Amino acid sequence: MLDDFLIRAGLAGAGVALATGPLGAFVVWRRMAYFGDATAHAAVLGVALALAFEMSIFVGTMVVALAMALAVARLSARGHAMDATLGVLSHSALAIGLVAISFVTSVRIDLQAYLFGDILAVSRGDLAVIWLGALAVTGLIIWRWSRLLIATLNGELAASAGVDPRREELVLTVALAVVVALAIKVVGALLIAAMLIIPAAAARSLARSPEAMAAMAVVLGLAAVAGGLTASLYADTPAGPSIVAAAAGLFTLSLLFAPFRRA
Amino acid sequence: MSDLPKQPMSLIDVTDMSAGYAGIAALRDMNLSIDKGEIVTVIGPNGSGKSTLIKVLMGVIAPSEGRVERAPGLSIGYVPQALSIDASLPITVARFLSLPKPQKASEIAAMLTRVGVPGLEGRQMTALSGGQFQRVLLARALLAKPDILILDEPTQGLDQPGVAAFYRLIEEVRTELGCAILLVSHDLHVVMSATDRVLCLNGHICCEGAPDAVLAAPEYRALFGDGTGGALALYQHHHDHDHDHGTNGHQH
Question: What is the pLDDT of residues A36-73, one digit of tens each?
Fold first, then answer.
């Protein structure tokens, strides 16, 4: 069954949706959208380094994404003006990554696959990595759910309850780097942040509890993967962007429910 | 509370403590100890280190010098100044009160009734009024069965009767629970009635003592004036703390 490329694509997308749902909810609650962007763009540099040193792409992207995420978290803790700082880091990382990839001449690479994803070319090995990573991230978030939630609400409130807000922030930062590394093959560096934010934002209108919002984000992410792959199959559109476009469609639909959300 | 030693041991002891951000000390050479059941009010102008003091006491930031010792097993109930919950986060009052540790529904209901907002369990936090929100925050702090309640300007955004009612409520629950209270405020006049001790803060402890004594102290008047002389008081304060007397510093 796993021989069918479409089934592998669907499973890969499902794995990504499983991880981006709950993590995406935290990205939305903590207003980390640009943080996610910067981390994802840094992954392009990770691809270049992985190719140059003949490492696994997954390891390369995760290491560079983690370095970027930690750097950004450190800067924000020191009170830098984050909007401009993130803009600088995010686009610099992308540009330097693209320049670095151009130097890797030994391998003939399809740059577009890393920018927009290549979900239809996911191998069994990729699938294993994606699902292991997704289960690890989801397990981590479920395990620390209450602590992550109170740290997100207010750092001092968390501290008064014996929860170190900096540690919880680190947990999210590491989770973000892992998700970026496993999602780059599926939706590409440019659209990873979209998979974090759009399903979670769409889930907001439909949920009355944080748990429901995270779960709904997973469901909507799965629906977006199914919709995007179907469109890709029948209309021959690029798969990654089609998945994000489907998520955007779901978000628009969710706005119909928005008037009831404060009830 | 029961596992605290019976001997006259303080809940929190601060010794020769300095603290701040990015190498700039917001607090210098502070000594402070808070005893069981004591009500301490900390007053000081903006930027005087009040928030830093709270963060150090709760262990959010480490002091750059000196020591902060908390009694073993100390339970802190914290009521923050103002908590803005992002509109993107759907959460009911009951769920908010159950973070990070689950609370019994019956205890939540009883506590909400105690703080004067019964039946709010199922309401979204973002749908509460300012007064309801502060009472829910107080309920949250009290559910921790605190040895000490730390309140950081808890009545910001409440109207005058709301402020009075909130402080009455705090005094009532304190009498019931017997916990210590550390109240941070910039307005001494509203909060004084039950205070044992007032600390006047401006980077360090300017003066300290019973409310009446502090109200009469020149350091307090220098910081806060005596009602009408705000501008003059501000200038005097500058005089008090500027020890680098240049040639054109003091033309009275």
Answer: 888 999 999 998 888 888 888 889 999 999 999 888 88
Q: State yes or no: pLDDT of A143 exceeds 80.
A: yes
Cα of A222 to nearest chain B Cα, Å? 21
ipTM: 0.83
**B54, B99, B144 member nearest A149 (Cβ):** B99
Q: Which chain B residues are Cβ-neighbours of A79 within 8 angstroms?
A: 21-22
* B6-32 pLDDT, tens digit each: 445 689 998 888 888 766 778 888 888
SS3 for chain A is CCCCHHHHHHHHHHHHHHHHHHHHHHHHHCCCHHHHHHHHHHHHHHHHHHHHCCCCHHHHHHHHHHHHHHHHHHHHHCCCCHHHHHHHHHHHHHHHHHHHHHHCCCCCCCHHHHHHCCHHHCCHHHHHHHHHHHHHHHHHHHHCHHHHHHHHHCHHHHHHCCCCHHHHHHHHHHHHHHHHHHHCCCCCCCCHHHHHHHHHHHHHCCCCCHHHHHHHHHHHHHHHHHHHHHHHHHHCCCHHHHHHHHHHHHHHHHHHHHHHCCC
pLDDT at B185: 82
| B90 vs A contacts (CB less than 8 Å) | 204, 207-210, 212-213, 261
